[in-house]
Structure formats: structure tokens, C-alpha cells
Amino acid sequence: MRALVLAAWLSLFGVAAWAEFPALYDVTGVSSGDVLNIRAGPGTAHADRGDLVYDATRIEVLGREGDWLRINFDGAPAWVSARFMTRQEGAAFPDHPVICHGTEPFWSLSRAANGALRFERPGAEALALEGSAAIRSANRADVAHFSAASGDARFDAILRKGSCSDGMSDLGFGLSIDLLRRDPNGTRLLSGCCALN
User: Fold this and answer.
1) pTM of whole model > 0.85?
2) Which intervals hold domain SH3b (predicted)?
């Protein structure tokens, strides 16, 4: 009985939602040469906005509503049938490759599958960073930290699962980042959103 009460209590707070998404999916079960329709909303009654080819892979899924999965498509939120999508196995949060970015000032931080980190901003030379392994929060499975450095520039990043907006587009993101940069010119806190890469 206790387990049932605990499960019901946890479901009220959406614990499974942040644990499950974002994630990478592949299109499956669509005939060769056919396509999977992308809809403007979660259901066939919504407008067809485009298509995914029958063998599309590495589609970032941000959430679920019933039998529909939410993705970004052509600069806006969109939906595909969960029936034709299979979650990829592999790296889990916080170890999967990501591309993070922020606006005003514009910047990006990418982490590749091999752990290589790169920080970029317009008008400045890109920095290849030496980074640490990401560590999870001791009390929150949806929060992680990693640090990195390049020469006299030091970076500390807090990565969080959860809805994020870049403030400039209609795109949704499933990860947010707060990036503290320290160098001889001072300390700067940058905030942004991340996508699985």
C-alpha cells in the first residue's frame, strides 16, 4: 500500500516526465520510401507541417502527450506519432552530447560524444576546452555540474533538465544551462538552453 501511495504522489509532480525527456528517438515501423507526418498539434486532426523520412534517426523528443511526441520542426513545436518512434539506447543525462547556446550576448558551448568541449561567441576565437566528467547532484537526478578550462579561462556549468526558452524563438528545449566564466577580464554568468546533439 505504501508503494502505491508513493507512486501516486510522485506522479502528481511529474517526476517521470523530467526523467524521460529530452531523449533521442529514431523513426521505426514506417515502410521504406514512406514518411512519418509531422503535425502542428498532438493528433491527426492537426495540420500536417512536414515529414520525417522512414529511416530518420537522432530526433530530439522533448515531451509526450498521450500517443504523441513533441519535437522541434522548422523553428516551432511539432508532434509525431509515438507509435512510429523508438527511443535510442546509449548515453543518459548528464553524459549525452549537447549543444548549448545563449542570446544577448550570443554564445555556444558544445560537448561531443567523446567529451570534447568547445566554447564560441561571435567575433572571438573559439576555445577548445579541457573538461571534467559531469557529476549529478547528490539530491536531484535532473541537475548536473561539469567544469572546463582553456588557458586562463575557467568555466563551471550547471545543467538542468526541464523546459527552457531562448527568449528569441518559438523553439522549446529540454535542458537549461547556467555557465560561469572566469578569466582575467572578470567573471560572467551566462544562461541558456541546450539540445541533445
Assistant:
1) no
2) 34-84
E strand segments, 41-185? 48-53, 59-61, 63-65, 68-73, 76-81, 85-87, 98-102, 107-111, 117-120, 127-131, 135-136, 143-150, 153-164, 173-183
Query: 10: part of which helix (H) or strand (E)?
Result: helix 2-12
For 24-67, the DSSP string reads EEEE-SPPTT-EEEEESSSSTTSPEEEEEETT---EEE-EEETT
Residue 92 lies in a domain: no
The CATH number for 162's domain is 2.40.128
The amino acid at residue 152 is D
- The side-by-side arrangement of strands in the sheet containing 48-53 is 48-53, 35-39, 76-81, 68-73, 63-65
Give kind and range of the element (H or E) at residue 20.
Answer: helix 15-20
Verify that 47 and 110 share a domain, yes or no.
no
Domain of residue 159 covers 98-196
Query: Which DSSP helix (H) or strand (E) runs through 105?
Result: none
Each residue's pLDDT, cut to its tens digit, for the chain (197 residues) gives 444 333 333 333 344 444 589 999 999 999 999 999 999 999 999 999 999 999 999 999 999 999 999 999 998 999 999 999 999 987 678 888 899 999 989 999 999 988 889 999 999 999 999 988 889 999 999 999 999 999 999 999 999 999 999 888 888 999 999 999 999 999 999 999 999 98
